[in-house]
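Human: If only I could read backbone structure tokens as easily as an amino acid sequence. Underneath my words sits a plain record pairing an amino acid chain with its backbone structure tokens. Take your time, and here it is.
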Amino acid sequence: MHADPTWATAAYQCGNNASDLMMLPAAIACWRRALECAMPNVTDVHQEASRAKVLTNLGWRLESVGQTLAALEASLEATTLDPKLAFAWLNLSIIQGRLGLTAKSVESARKAFDLSPEDSTVEMGLAFALLFNRNLSEGFKHFESRYAYRLKNFQRYPYPKWLGEPDKTIFLVSDQGLGDTLSMARFIRMACKRARYVHACVHPELLRLFQYAFMDVPNLNLLPQPCNFPAADAWTTFVSLPFALGLTDDEIRNTPQVKYDAPRTNASQWKVPDRKLHIGIAWRGSHLNEINDHRSIPVTQFLDLYKAPGVQLYSLQVDANKNQLFDTGCAPVVKDMSGHIRDVTDTLSILKDLDMVITIESALGHICTMAGIETWVPYSYMGRDYRVGVDGTDQIWSNYKVFPQGPDMRWQPVFDSIVEALRGRVK
């Protein structure tokens, strides 16, 4: 670019390189420079197509950094210049979903899929657009593209994928996080009724809980991850069960949660006396989740909750992030419960002695749903979950009180609203 700052291709490629290195502000600046440059020696049609590619990438990364309206403008211009550019329509779909225009998001995603039906990235975009629009059955069907998109190891399993055929021995695997497995466990009994036998490989943290919950199912064998391949006819995963079982939208939405009546494993002597409201908190989810940096919140932000008098906070964070309590000086006012927790059964036992939980949207929220405990979720603008929806007004399988983040992606206004609601809750 320094040798010839007017060369659009150089600016475009520099932007691509910076994007691959996750240097997003630099990528955005390079693409904006490319749009300023003339593209000589090409026809008008080719120049428009080249400009559309630049705008497509620009819209993608503007959306990634939360500049939704600027991303919308770039993506709309890209689809106008080149209506056959699948990724321009995909970007537009994602942006429309961010703005709560879920029906339009599906429409744009379908255009992208029609143009590039073999691209797993495009199909994943369609899957999420459908799920957020509550086209659940079709959404889970297209969500099967995640194996080609990222979970390629499943395609090398020594048996075929289960498509719901009866009287088969099935290897059922947890392919997503704890929260997903807990949500989809509601379909285990349906799978066991259709299959001859089911070997279910689950997170070790869930094993004891599932043993209590499904002890009455004779053809279910629970195994902790990782495990060897059992003798089976086919494989599937927990998140694939709605698709494999051929469930309708209503069946998916209305299948009840499993009742987990595990025994109490902790006495409540750990509770701080003379407090009106005992609140569990968690501020970070699994780092394996792509949206984790968006949905996670500094633990110090939760100290705002002490603006409501009479509360006591308890940390339910059990991974390495629990150390942030001590690194930030929060340990004197946020009691660390990780020493009481070995698995989800222990977490459920602690929840029975808490009044409520305030957590990011993560596995803990799904555990709280099972326990029937009041749960408030500060909800990220960029880190949404299809089960909660765009703003929490149309949830499936949960009943959180949602405090959505605005387009400015600031947490302080969210916690100001939570504190105001908490003062009323204390009273």
Notes: Strands lie at 169-173, 197-202, 220-224, 234-237, 277-282, 311-315, 334-336, 356-359, 375-379, 401-404.
